[in-house]
Amino acid sequence: MDKRKTGKKKVKKNVPAGIAHIQATFNNTLILISDLDGNAVAWSSAGSNGF
């Protein structure tokens, strides 16, 4: 029997303007993109990308 995951679909958000928050430490760099209200739209870190 074929088991399929049932999860939430990602919703694409259209944000015309945003703010980039960058936190650089000795061990990692975090980048967060938020809308003008401060709600997080996307984030990434150097550690999660393999650097």
Automatic annotation (TrEMBL):
InterPro entries: Ribosomal_uS11, Ribosomal_uS11_sf
Record's keyword terms, sorted: Ribonucleoprotein, Ribosomal protein
Ribonucleoprotein keyword on record: yes
Coiled coil: none
Gene3D superfamilies xrefs: Ribosomal protein S11 (3.30.420.80)
Pfam families: Ribosomal_S11
Any one biological process term the GO annotation gives: translation
Ribonucleoprotein recorded as keyword: yes
GO cellular component: ribonucleoprotein complex; ribosome
A GO molecular-function annotation: structural constituent of ribosome
Assigned protein family: Belongs to the universal ribosomal protein uS11 family.
UniProt protein name: 30S ribosomal protein S11
